[in-house]
Structures are given as structure tokens and as C-alpha cells.
Amino acid sequence: MRGIVAVACSGGRDSLALLHATATAARGQGLDVVALHIHHGLLPEADAWFDHVESMCRRWAAEGLPVRFIGHRLTARPRRGESVEAWARDARYAALATMAREAGAGLVLLGHHRRDQAETFLLQALRGGGVAGLSAMPSRIERDGLVWQRPWLDVPRAHIEQYVRQCGLDSVDDPSNTDPRFARNRLREAVWPVLVEAFPDAEVALAASARWAQQAAQVLDEVAAADLATCAVGERLDIAAWSRLGEARRINALRAWLRERRGEPATAALVERLRTELIGTGPACWAWAGGELRRYRGRLSFGQAVAAVAPSREPTLAIRRAGRYRLPGWGGAVHATRVDEGGVPLAWLAHLDLRERQGGEQFQAGFSRPARSLKKQYQAAGVPEWDRGGPLLFSGGQLVFVPGLGIDARVVGLPGQAQMMLAWEAANVTEG
Ligand SMILES: Nc1ncnc2c1ncn2[C@@H]1O[C@H](COP(=O)(O)OP(=O)(O)OP(=O)(O)O)[C@@H](O)[C@H]1O
Binding of ATP: at which residues (predicted)? Predict the structure, then answer.
């Protein structure tokens, strides 16, 4: 089977040139090229761009180049208040990934060049970006099971213009590329010409700075990984161990820990708040990313906000066999596992009432121990307020199971009886 390379082609000068150059090089190497084009459905010109890229591919294929067109029209729209640019980028990459996979391509090429890289560096600096932002665009990354490459990231824009002229390529012009509402366009139109006049090597120098930043970012990641190996406990952060790091490493490790929790960077404002507030005693909470960061007993964890639990709570549950019983209304699931002892006899589990804590419930933690109020039991077991979510399981009026505490000793089965161990698992809560 022939290898397949995908080129993401907007129809603009750079990506059309890249598509042509890739198809030309592929001819001699027994490779096939697919041109992936996304119609964002945002501008009236988009129909013409779609047709243009398609007809170029058809023409080149007729001339013997191993290229074929795959187009996709986005039907979704950005939400009210959402940045159109950010929405278009995310939707485009998601669609490109699906199209590449369906076409059997493991490699997707993008048409960014050295000036794009220099601009990105400058824009990041003007936003006060950190080392990760100043790294601008990587020349190669692996994501969604694909390799994304920018083969022209070190190529000067002027070389691409020359290639386009030499090959007589006819590209499309996107009018939004000059819209001054976008920072990149203001930089291109108003700043760049003046900048290169005063600093003719600006493109080379800024792209080189981006490369330095990439190396620095990698070192910071490695240092953070080494530091987290000493102060992360499962999904939690040990605050005492963390506080022993020097200040810069502490902030760097915290950023990396937060990024791991959500897969996206935390804001500078949150990092600054935690820097000053995290070291301390007693429970504390910080709202973040639709959830909560919680300090409890010297550890920091991240989980779903208690108030975010859905309101329609399931009133009953029947457990007849081992498995995971989802209770979305309670924001989690009950796990039932077959055990030989220490579990709840099956007879208790066939008709369970699910109730919220009312106050006054008594729980017995062990055979020879007295039943005590849930509040006292929670305190004794060190279960923080936010881990006390989930339903109390009653059977025939008797408390059977309490999330965070376990099975009430009064219902524990005799060895040999058919019985289940129960556990409560809160949705989206990361626990160590
Ligand atoms: N509509 C699209 N369909 C497919 N790929 C796209 C599309 N828009 C952008 N890309 C890919 O992302 C790269 C960068 O996009 P960007 O918007 O910066 O460039 P452009 O203005 O579309 O023009 P050019 O094709 O000249 O790079 C493009 O080179 C191309 O590889």
C-alpha cells in the first residue's frame, strides 16, 4: 500500500504552495497526497475557496501529480461570546484530524513559515506571555494519534513567494487577513513593515528567540516533573513538600500540576493567588475551571464543585449483581464487588432508598464500636466536607452504606453469605 501524506490547505498562498511542493516531491517517492480543506461557513467567499482548492487538485492530478481533494464544511457555529478565531481554530483542527485519519494519513503538514513564527513570538511577548507562549509554534508535534508538522517553519516568506511565482500558482485571498480587529493583522499591516525597515533581520532573530524559548520550556517541564516526583501524591499535591522548593521552582511545579489536572494552563492570576494563599493550615477552596481546588490536611486536590451536582437525584437503586451503578443525579456511581466477607448481604441490596444526609443519622463503623452521628464519624475518619457527597443507602429503614465511610457494621454479612462490597465514586473528582 502507498504511504499517504495530508496537507492542510486553506487555498492561501503558503498552504497552496506547500500542497504543490509536497505533491511534486511525492510523485518521485511513491506517496499519495490528500489536500484537506475546511469550509468554516463564516464568510461568503468560502464557497469559492472550496471550489478553488478542489479544482487545483483536479488539475494537478490530471497533470500526473498524486493528489486528491477532501473538503469538509463545518455546520456548527461559535457560541455567543466565544472568540470566533479560537472557535474556528479548534473546529478546524478537530475536523482535520478526523479527515486525516479517515484518509489513512498519519502525517498532516501545515503551511506556517518563518514569518508566522516571528509574528507569533512577538504577539506572545506583547501579551506578556511566558516561556511556553514565547515558544510559538512547534515544528512537529504528536496529537490525536497524528504527527503534525510545519516543514516550512524555518523557511523565509520570500522563498515561498518566489516558488509561487515560478510555478505560476493561483491562490485565494482571505479578506479577514487584513481586518484590524485581529492583533495579528494589526501587527502585519502596521508594525511589520516599519519593524523590518529598522531591523532587517527581525524575522530571523525573532524566530531564533522562539527556538531558545522552546528549549527553555522543555527544561522547565523536566524540572517540574522532577519536583512533582517529590511532592505529588497520586492526584494530590503535598503542600509541605511543595513549599520546601525554591520560589521559582515552586511556581513552575504548581503550574505543571495544575496543567496536568485540566490539560490546559492555569491563568497567571490563579497561580499568583495560590502562591500566596496555598501555604496555610485548615481546609480551603479555590474555584477553578468549573470545579474546585481544595486544601485539606496538607494536600491540594481538584474536583467537581459540590454545588455543581445535578439536582434530579435518583430515589431508589436495586443492586443484584456486581457492577458500576451510575447515579448522574448524585454526581457519581456506586461500585458493587462480590466479596466473601465484610460486605452487605444481597438481600439488603435489592431495594435501596437513596437519601441525602438530614442530620441525626447514626453510623456504626465497627462491630465492637458504638453507633455515632455521621458528623462525628466523618470527622474521625478525616473525610472533608466535599467528599461527603453521594447518597446514603438505606434498606428497610436501616442505614447500609455511607460514601466516604463505607458499610455500616450492623448490616455486614456473615462469612459464606452472598454479599457485596460497596464504594462510591464521584464523577470528575480526581483523588489520590
Ligand atoms: N480552511 C482551512 N483548511 C485547511 N487548512 C487550513 C485552513 N486554514 C488554515 N489552514 C492550515 O493552517 C495553516 C495556517 O493557517 P493561517 O490561517 O495562518 O494561514 P492562511 O491565512 O490560511 O494562509 P496560508 O495558506 O497562506 O498559510 C495554513 O497554512 C494551513 O496549513
Answer: 10-15
User: 224-257: b or e for each residue (b if 16 or more CB lie within 10 Å)?
Assistant: beebbeebbeebbbbbebbeebeeebbbbbbbbb
My answer on whether 179 and 240 are in the same domain is no
pLDDT in tens, 337-384: 999 999 999 989 988 999 988 888 899 998 888 889 988 898 888 888
Task: Note the ipTM here.
Answer: 0.96
Domain that holds residue 352: 316-426
Cα 108 from Cα 140, distance rounded (Å): 10
- Identify which of 5, 7, 9, 10 to mutate to test ligand 1's pocket (most ligand atoms within 8 A of the CB): 10
* Structural domain contains residue 213: no
Q: Which residues line ligand 1 (CB under 6 A)?
A: 8-10, 12-15, 36-38, 92, 110-112, 174, 177
Catalogue the E-assigned strands of 255-370.
Answer: 284-288, 291-296, 299-304, 316-317, 323-327, 332-339, 344-345, 352-355, 362-363
Q: Name the band, by pLDDT with cuts 50, 70 and 90, for residue 431.
A: very low
pTM of the model: 0.71
From CA 24, how far away is CA 70, in angstroms rounded? 18
Query: Do residues 302 and 327 share a domain?
Result: no
Q: Are residues 33 and 149 in the same domain?
A: yes
Largest CA distance in the chain: 90
Q: Do 324 and 295 fall into the same domain?
A: no
